Amino acid sequence: MYYKSTRDSSVNVTSAQAIAQGISKDGGLFVPSSIPKITFEDIKAMGDMSYPDRAAFVFSKYLTDFSDAEIRYCVDNAYTDKNFDTKNICELAQLFNGTYMLELWHGPTCAFKDMALQILPYLITTSSKKINLDKKVVILVATSGDTGKAALEGFKDVEGTQIMVFYPVNGVSEMQKKQMTTQEGENVSVCAIKGNFDDAQNGVKAIFTDDEVEDELSNNGLMFSSANSINWGRLAPQIIYYVSSYAQLVKDGKAELGEKINIVVPTGNFGNILAAYYAKKMGIPVNKLICASNSNNVLTDFINTGVYDKNRQFYTTISPSMDILISSNLERLLYHICGENDSQIREWFTELSDCGKYEVSDKVKAVLKEEFFAGFCDDKQTKACIKEQYDKNSYVCDTHTAVAVKVYEDYREKTGDNTKTVIASTASPYKFSNSVLEALGEFDPSMGEFELVDKLYEVSKLTVPKSLAELKGKDIRFNDTIDKSEMKDFVLKSLGISK
Ligand SMILES: *Cc1c(COP(=O)(O)O)cnc(C)c1O
């Protein structure tokens, strides 16, 4: 199995090269040259496997240049009950008859990004060894909250890596700030930037592409890599839980082997739902992939009309991890469905960067309609959905997951489709206690972050994730706030190579 670039089909690299490099030199994203298949027998056999074994099986189809021992090393270090609060790694809970919540937030930071970021450091360091780079990997992350913490937890104390996270000083929640500034580990740094998320992001990009910095790093046996969802090493681990959840439904007698299911995903950068698309193309029987957005509904419009137009108002919502107007992983989907036509992709994405807009062909529009259903809801509907699910099904959704549940209810109403359904539950409600309590009519503005957690426990009786409860007593380790112009010096100083 080789990997091509979405902007140059003649690129042909191994998975280790794709993962170590992160993004192709032509600006395209790495995609598998063909999508490997799994059979019904494979699915049946997976039912009796542990999550790490299921993961190893799926990885063996995509990382064909990795040895079995290398794959085992990665999955066994990542998917253990030291890192996740359940042996199953993710859970499948019934919302109501025939509809299941795939809970992807049992990892150390209580959001689904842990499913990939717990294993990514091992995939990157193994890849870099395999291709004889033998350099220490330096990860730079600009974060609006969730990704930074998940990357810190994944990379902390992983040999051969160092990680630096920059966040906008007033752009993250108190809980997110506390999660990051108390981060443990000897190879981590966290720093606030005076400015917004874009300032942090632009600063990181400038350092990534600074030749002087690259030379300095190289002279010191270091190299940059990316923990962003453009890296194939973040996408591949996400395919696993869709395959795994289907195998589990069959094993538990909740679905017949071969019976189709719908998959609903609250979507931002299009990474998570793209992983579900890959699972379908591998052979998991899927009817519709349901793409749920918040008020930033650029994807809803795109799937329904074939016109991608980011020239629109940006909304700050109660589901912040979905507040996105450019969904980078869409490029991978379009590459596959337009017949791997790299010149077509270059044309559309040049239009996107020049005018913020492109329109796909009628053929692609037809495929989008066939594979996907798309819908969106605003904050008010999101809150109403949290309340309704709590009252009706005694299930407490976080704000992102509630968007998915609401769009799914709209889909059922519109189509009358009663196909069994798996909904991706992407964060623990405790991560967004404030909005969840507001939705339940229990919010008290005088309460601090941890009192709100206690309050949500009182209301929901859901176990408080240990990692969040423990934050309360932790010391702040990082309280630097710097100007954007000082980021480069900060990076060099943290690496011990400043002049
Ligand atoms: C990142 C995130 C999403 C969006 O996932 P994408 O892969 O970017 O589409 C949804 N919910 C939560 C809680 C997230 O952290």
Can you name the CATH architecture of one domain? 3-Layer(aba) Sandwich
Distance between the amino and carboxyl termini:
44 Å
Largest sheet: 6 strands, mixed
Order of neighbouring strands in the sheet with most strands: 4-5-15-10-11-14
User: Which band does the percent of strand residues land in?
Assistant: 15-25%
Instruction: Report the top-level CATH class of one domain.
Output: Alpha Beta
Q: Which small compounds were modeled alongside the protein?
A: pyridoxal-5'-phosphate
Query: Unreliable runs, pLDDT <50, ≥5 residues?
Result: none
How would you classify the quaternary structure? single chain
Count of DSSP H/I helices: 22
Estimate the mean pLDDT confidence: 94
Shape: globular
Compact summary:
By secondary structure, the chain is α/β, with parallel strands linked by helices.
Description:
The chain has 499 residues and is α/β, with parallel strands linked by helices. It has a domain at 91-111 and 233-464: 3-Layer(aba) Sandwich (Rossmann fold), CATH 3.40.50. It is 46% helix and 16% strand. The protein is built from 22 helices and 16 strands. The strands form four sheets. A six-stranded mixed sheet has the order 4-5-15-10-11-14, sandwiched between helices. A five-stranded parallel sheet has the order 9-6-7-8-16, sandwiched between helices. The chain has a three-stranded antiparallel sheet with strand order 2-1-3. α3 (51-62) crosses α4 and α17 crosses α18 (399-415). The structure holds pyridoxal-5'-phosphate. Pyridoxal-5'-phosphate (PLP) binds at residues 111-113, 146, 229, 266-272, 321-322, 400, 426-427.
